[in-house]
From TrEMBL:
Any one cellular-component term (Gene Ontology): cytosol
One GO BP annotation of this record: negative regulation of cell division
Binding-site list for ATP: K34, G35, G36, V37, G38, K39, S40, T41
Lineage of origin: Bacteria, Pseudomonadati, Campylobacterota, Epsilonproteobacteria, Campylobacterales
Stretches of the chain forming a coiled coil according to its record: none
Organism: Arcobacter arenosus
One term of GO molecular function: ATP hydrolysis activity
Protein name as it appears in the record: MinD/ParA family protein
């Protein structure tokens, strides 16, 4: 079954091959380790701010089995990432336009059984293909929580990895586990703190994590770059419940300014 899916898929992929090998598309994978730290909310909001700055942005909901970005964007897409992965549809067909200009979504599918495809590097192929497609400036990939094989698959093909964490000890333990994993064959990790009132607190904890990595002799060439903090606001949950984006509704709020600052740093560091 997989072979037929795969050959169907490669036909579709060939249709989307670029005319040259130079892709303008930057891929940023957003991950967290611990669940519930605010990753999807953060991804949707920075996607909007990046699109507002004029970048053509597509978000991929790669949280296998728990698709919630479509809720945040208030969409009910007919086609999902898995229609592409399973070879039925092309990239352009599985992309849904959001209500916001320059901003699209490749939706996930709740309850999807990845075991259907039971073959490594099937999912992350979309990363290569979307770069080849060369139609977007920025691709944001929202992975599931944890460090399971699907998350690792996306991390392995990403040039830019951003970890969102909180100051909660269990979230920090998970981020350190992520640092250990990435330090083996990646050059860097961008680190952002959610639910963190002060920029300095995030900075201090980032330095402690880097010191711990030194003490434990993690690869010295592996860099952890702190890119900023996001405070807590009840309005974030409220806007999400209303299927709206916080940064769109509260354009001059302190949290929107914090997110803009995160983006400034992020854009400076993009590979
Ligand atoms: N800075 C914040 N202030 C207040 N509430 C927030 C903030 N960030 C996220 N939230 C809320 O926290 C909850 C969890 O957020 P979200 O679903 O984005 O987390 P997640 O990390 O993607 O979760 P999962 O691990 O399930 O994928 C949501 O109700 C969201 O509205």
């Amino acid at each position: 079954m997989f072979n037929s899916i795969s050959s169907q898929a490669s036909k579709l992929i060939n249709l989307t091959k670029p005319k040259n090998n130079i892709s303008k598309t930057k891929v940023i994978t957003i991950t967290s380790g611990k669940g519930g730290v605010g990753k999807s909310t953060f991804t949707a909001n920075i996607a909007y701010l990046l699109a507002k700055r004029g970048f053509k942005v597509v978000v991929i909901d790669a949280d296998i089995g728990l698709a919630n970005l479509q809720v945040l964007f208030d969409l009910k897409p007919k086609l999902t990432l898995f229609d592409y992965i399973e070879g039925r549809n092309s990239i352009s067909e599985v992309v849904s336009n959001t209500a916001y200009s320059n901003l699209s979504l490749i939706a996930g599918k709740s309850g999807y059984q990845y075991a259907n495809l039971n073959n490594s590097l099937v999912l992350s192929r979309i990363v290569h293909d979307i770069k080849d497609y060369n139609n977007y400036d920025i691709v944001l990939i929202d992975t599931g929580a944890g460090l399971n094989e699907y998350v690792q698959e996306f991390l392995s093909v990403s040039d830019n990895i951003l970890a969102l964490t909180t100051t909660d000890p269990s979230a920090l333990t998970d981020v350190y586990a992520l640092m250990k994993l990435l330090s083996i064959d990646k050059k860097s990790l961008l680190l952002c703190f959610n639910h963190t009132r002060s920029y300095q607190i995030g900075e201090t904890i980032s330095k402690s994590l880097v010191n711990l990595a030194k003490k434990n002799l993690l690869n010295p060439n592996f860099m952890v770059k702190y890119i900023g903090n996001v405070s807590t606001s009840a309005n974030i949950s409220t806007t999400s419940r209303l299927r709206k984006l916080f940064v769109h509704e509260f354009q001059h709020d302190q949290i929107t300014k914090e997110l803009q600052k995160v983006i400034d740093t992020l854009l400076n560091d993009l590979k």
